[in-house]
Write a structure and sequence with these properties.
CATH class of one domain in chain A: Alpha Beta
Distance between the termini of chain A: 54 Å
Oligomer: homodimer
Largest interface: A-B, 138 and 138 residues
Strand order of the largest sheet of chain A: 6-10-11-23-22-21-18-12
Strand content of chain A: 15-25%
Helix content of chain A: 25-40%
Radius of gyration of chain A: 30 Å
Number of helices of chain A: 16
Shape of chain A: globular
Number of strands of chain A: 24
Chain lengths: 589, 589
């Protein structure tokens, strides 16, 4: 270890005086034998620089292959006129090597260390360490680290304490998505990995910690359908004597810091705030992408008393008629049929479409059922111009706006895909409708309602102090004001249909904690994987996770998960179930 | 949420202008009814301030009890002359309350929120949230957060990237201390929780990440004998093109930052560096507490050719004679017998003790066997004064120094218990002796030896590039320079007795990664729990972990680990073993 491994990093050669003798360490990215002189690019974490050497005086040059790891000693000189590369930071210099040491060789690569070559993801994951050498992944990992550091610095400056909560916690019978860890000391018992630090952060508030944050590893036994991972990281925060607006302001500080760190832009604050009712009514979804318009319009009054039964029946049944202006879609009949199928698959009875012809008339299968006044009002209601396609749905409000929300999301495109549109959605309903038409709590039972009376008397419209943060049509995270007195908590359990004995059984030790002078508190959590993925423009969160699992929960690099020896299981007091044994021996056969 | 929950924190009242109307939120710490006027201390995360109120104009005062959570609005006024408390930051002011709101009440407390009252640890853990309100735990959590933030800032400033490695990894048949997580998607297979991110951080180096760190949650299925936890946090770091001295310098930067954050002192750097050989020889242990002397002295030459068989036989057998000067111990015969038992329990054949009498003679059971010259040389070798107790052990070198190391640790006391004595131990042996006299690798098989030839030819004395960081007699962490070329790696496996097929089976995918141009790299990891515990003066790491488990791996607050429903296990393809079922039904009966 006596030899100094390097004096400079590749990128630093750009700002270093010519004539300096530098020692560099890095990888051979490209070699060119120019007859008597060998050129190669040396790449390290900072960038690349060109190395020039004479095979006669520098032994080992001929043996260099792609991705050999080498140490080079040489003099920094300006590149000759005409050979400069102005696209490269170090493109005006080259290192004239006097010494070359191969630190380690490389086998033939499974793929090129160059983002211009597409590589299938399974291969990338199998050789993740080589994938890290490519600009894309290297830059994603840097972005993630910088975003995390920026958020931390911002929260520490606001006197937040970072507190580590346990990841071996109690499992609950309801924890269908809990990942379990068998206990060796207490056989037959299990820890669960946390789906979030929710209860622990509330206990910190009970304990007077005032301002808490943590980048928390969380676990959910997902089916991997929708770009999720078994383990993920969320920025988790909570504050005492803190209200909803305080939470929003602090989360904005964190998000702005991360955005600046990755994108070098500063989003305008405060972020726009929409009520849940408003986003549903205007965008048909609780996580709208507002980088484009195409807003939903309520056309119910336009068709009040209409002769067209498709609309009339819906309105008479207490429903609504809503439409969007899809713009100049230029769809064929087949295209409209497909849109109609989409609408039906999301619960619509049908989809009415109409195209504004050059003469201002409407081309539509239902045009003949609509009066001139209705056609005029439809066009004006949707601010229609010649060539625009209008899409109209009638039915119950929730279904109608959601169907149009899906069509809007499918048809709309932001003018600037790099734009970042952060927004808040607040005042979520306490309950959401279940598939069978009943009501189920939309949030955890510790969420503060706007009004206990509403919860009891008008559950379908009761609101809670729950709020989401949305970016470009993706939900980044959610939070709420928590209930801080045990009387309200009991009443909320009652309205939610949780009997006192059940509450005691499920949450007993937590309810006990609330009885010792709990401060008002509120908090939030957002997913770092998703935030960073959007900020760097990655299509999957796997591109911002160093070692992700595939959608089947497998790591192609290490082969996890894998079978273990029977005696390892036995030491934990466990056995494979009869069904598993049968399935495994069938596989073997 | 319209009411502002607070305008000031309690401690801020000290620097706020008199006459200001403040809104505070916090806990009632102490109430005194002074006949017509009620005083109480309001405590929040920042500190305490005295509140004064008239029960006639402020309703609710009489109902206040300890630890009620309240909101107080009032005017800040100077305390009357003679009632000021100069020990308290806010002791010159009081808040004259005009409004009082009980935010939540408190049941009778299980213990006082006051560190002066001793509370047994089980109760503290069961009501951990109340324990957080006591100064000791609150201050420990702050210290930990500040230490973590300071280390992060120092490493980020040195361009380290924080990279999150997975916690659901491949299990190995050798992973006896692995905690397992059953896979639901691939039944019969398991993830393991990582004992450290070792292999992943080395893969990051292969991937060109250059400088990595992470506060990593790690897991080890410990027996909890020695103040350990199932999950713990280590600062993990690694660098490419990095040597042993670079690692030490960077770790020192991190440690200094943490020490400054918690203790407000700056340890002198560089920390002293000892070879393993030297600390063993001088302190009889590889993690010495050097805050006191009492160093071991080699007395072998003193007793060369002695007539005393206890020493002579050892020397003739190739052993050594070492001693320490225990200082003025004033032990009785019984005390010496106990020391002798201790020495024997650590492997010594016996312990020779001698006390320097007022006349300079030695009082010792063996004095009569020692010549005058030997007695004089013994005293001079141990720098003895009147009243000192000398302890001498003879036998094989390793046993002898370790026995004296134990006695030294038991008898020695630092003059200043607050002193922090950081040091490095380097050049550990490649192999350590096993109980049966064989040799076993002392570190993981990726550790770079000083010399392959030594490893092969002189294994008992071969050294490795492995190093430890020690603080006050505790090992904080360890690291090494790693092997970076696959040829050396193969040879090392060979010397370690790992056959190529076994290496392939155990480490195949990792060895494959090393074959693609691995840079020289080195790293380190140290335990945050232990560092912070020593910095705050805690006797157990549990006092710096927010929600620790007991020594039986149990959380008395949440009851984890706990049984789960049979169908939860079944969904994972698992069953309790027959033995576990039998044990559980025996418990039920």
């Amino acid at each position: 270890m006596a030899t100094q491994l390097r004096t400079h990093r590749a990128a630093e050669t750009a700002g270093t005086e010519h004539g300096t003798v530098v020692t560099l360490g890095g990888w051979v990215a490209r070699t060119r034998d120019m007859g008597g002189v060998v050129f190669f690019d040396l790449r390290d974490a900072s960038g690349k620089v060109q190395v020039v050497a004479d095979p006669d005086s520098v032994p080992g040059l001929e043996e260099l292959r792609m991705e050999y790891c080498v140490r080079v000693v040489g003099e920094l000189r300006p590149r000759p006129e005409g050979t400069q590369n102005h696209d490269l930071e170090t493109g005006l210099v080259e290192v004239h090597a006097t010494e070359l040491e191969v630190l380690s060789t490389s086998e033939t690569l499974p793929f090129m260390i160059d983002d211009r070559f597409d590589v299938d993801e399974l291969t990338r994951l199998q050789y993740r360490y080589l994938d890290f050498r490519r600009d894309g992944m290297a830059s994603n990992l840097r972005a993630r680290s910088h975003a995390t550091a920026a958020i931390r610095a911002a929260l520490v400056a606001q006197e937040f304490l970072e507190v580590e909560t346990p990841t071996l916690i109690a499992s609950t019978p309801e924890g269908a998505r809990d990942m379990l860890v068998p206990s060796r000391l207490r056989q037959g018992s299990f820890y669960a990995l946390p789906q979030s630090p929710q209860i622990f952060k509330q206990l910190l508030m009970v304990g007077g910690i005032d301002r808490y944050f943590q980048f928390a590893r969380c676990y959910r036994d997902e089916d991997f359908r929708s770009d999720r991972q078994l383990e993920f990281t969320q920025l988790d925060l909570e504050g005492a004597f803190w209200g909803e607006e305080d939470v929003r302001a602090t989360v904005e500080v964190a998000i702005v810091a991360a955005t600046q760190a990755v994108r070098d832009v500063t989003p305008a604050t405060p972020f726009p705030v929409f009520t849940w009712q408003e986003v549903m009514d205007r965008y048909g979804i609780d996580k709208p992408d507002i980088r484009f318009g195409m807003e939903l319009k309520n056309l119910s009054t336009v068709f009040d008393g209409t002769a067209f039964r498709g609309f009339g029946a819906a309105l008479e049944g207490g429903g609504v008629v809503y439409g969007i202006n899809g713009g100049a879609l230029g769809l064929s009949r087949k295209g409209f049929d497909e849109l109609t199928e989409t609408a039906k698959s999301h619960g619509a009875a049908g989809l009415v479409w109409a195209v504004v012809e050059d003469d201002g008339s409407l081309r539509s299968p239902v045009a003949k059922f609509l009066s001139d006044e209705e056609q005029a009002a439809l066009k004006s209601g949707l601010d229609a111009s010649v060539g625009d396609t209008l899409l109209v749905v009638a039915g119950p409000w929730r279904t109608t706006v959601e169907v149009l929300g899906h069509l809007r999301a499918q048809l709309g495109t932001p003018a600037d895909p790099d734009e970042l549109a952060y927004l808040w959605v607040v005042d979520f309903p306490v309950f959401e409708e279940t598939a069978d038409g009943g009501l189920a709590p939309a949030h955890h039972p510790f969420t503060q309602p706007h009004s206990l009376e509403d919860m009891k008397e008008r559950p379908a419209v009761a609101l809670s102090h729950a709020y989401d943060l949305v970016l470009n049509g993706t939900e980044l995270g959610s939070g709420s004001v928590r209930i801080h007195d045990s009387e309200t908590q009991s009443e909320v359990f009652d309205v939610l249909g949780i009997a006192p004995e059940e509450a005691e059984r499920r949450f007993g030790w937590f309810l006990q904690a609330l009885r010792f002078g709990t401060p008002p508190h509120a908090g939030f959590a957002f997913g770092m994987d998703r935030l960073v993925a959007i900020l760097v423009g990655a299509t999957s969160i796997r591109d911002v996770i160093p070692f992700p699992k595939t959608q089947r929960g497998v790591d192609p690099l290490t082969g996890s998960p894998n079978p273990v020896e029977p005696d390892q299981l036995d030491e934990l007091g466990l056995d494979l179930s009869a069904a598993t044994k049968a399935a495994l021996s069938a596989d073997d056969a």
